[in-house]
Amino acid sequence: MSDTEKKTLGRPRSAQSHQAILQATLELLAEVGFERMSIDAIAARAGVSKPTIYRRYKSKEELVADAIESHREDVIIPDTGSFWGDIEALIQSAAQITLSPLGRQTVGMIISSATSNPPFAQVYWTKYLQPRRQAFAIVLERAKARNEVKTEVDSNLVFDIMSGVMLYALVFQPTTEPWEAYVSRALKLVLKNAVV
């Protein structure tokens, strides 16, 4: 067997190990929580060695953040040609990701882990939220270029407000209208002074 064949045969096993690590992490996170979960337990459940985990991750916080994100889709920044069209597309995308049972469980794990463990919160913020905030700024810049939104509007603040409204409505579900309609209505009210 050539070196090339050996390398090719090794790759699926590595990917399989990585998936097993992520799955074991999510399972243990749901069962025992962030604080009580250990790398030893993750390795045992995934059927890998601790060095296999530490070759991929510097810390438990980084591993947990990656495991959570492995079940979430990347946010695609829409370009519908209008600010509210883009916002509605983002709301629809968020609904598909977060309103499923797995999505709700994932949000619960993120909140629980981030509030009880500042290092996890920092890793999650740096690795996942901050890039999404930066990507969301594109929506605002396009809207500003089309003179739909005032130039002084802070894209980070809009992203935070949108995230806050979505999270609130996920935890305390509206009873008189669908989640998407509630989020859209709330954002239009909050952002009405930002729109030209």
Characterization of the model:
With 196 residues, the protein is mainly alpha-helical. It has two domains: 68 residues, Tetracycline Repressor, domain 2 (Orthogonal Bundle); 108 residues, Tetracycline Repressor, domain 2. 76% of the residues lie in helices and 0% in strands. It has nine helices and no strands. The radius of gyration is 20 Å and the shape is elongated. The termini are far apart.
List the helices and strands and how they pair.
Elements: H1 3-36, H2 39-46, H3 50-56, H4 60-70, H5 83-98, H6 101-116, H7 118-145, H8 155-171, H9 179-190
Q: Which CATH top level class of the largest domain fits?
A: Mainly Alpha
Radius of gyration: 20 Å
| Nearest-integer average pLDDT | 85
Work out the helicity level. Answer: over 70%
Alpha-beta classification: mainly alpha
Distance between the termini: 67 Å
| Parts with pLDDT < 50 across at least 5 consecutive residues | 1-12
The largest pleated sheet is described as: none
CATH H-level homologous superfamily name of the largest domain: Tetracycline Repressor, domain 2
Domain count: the total is 2
Q: What's the total number of strands?
A: 0
- Strand and helix order: HHHHHHHHH
Shape: elongated
Strand content: under 5%
Brief description of this entry?
Helices cover 76% and strands 0% of the residues.
Which properties best describe this structure?
mainly alpha; 196 residues; Tetracycline Repressor, domain 2
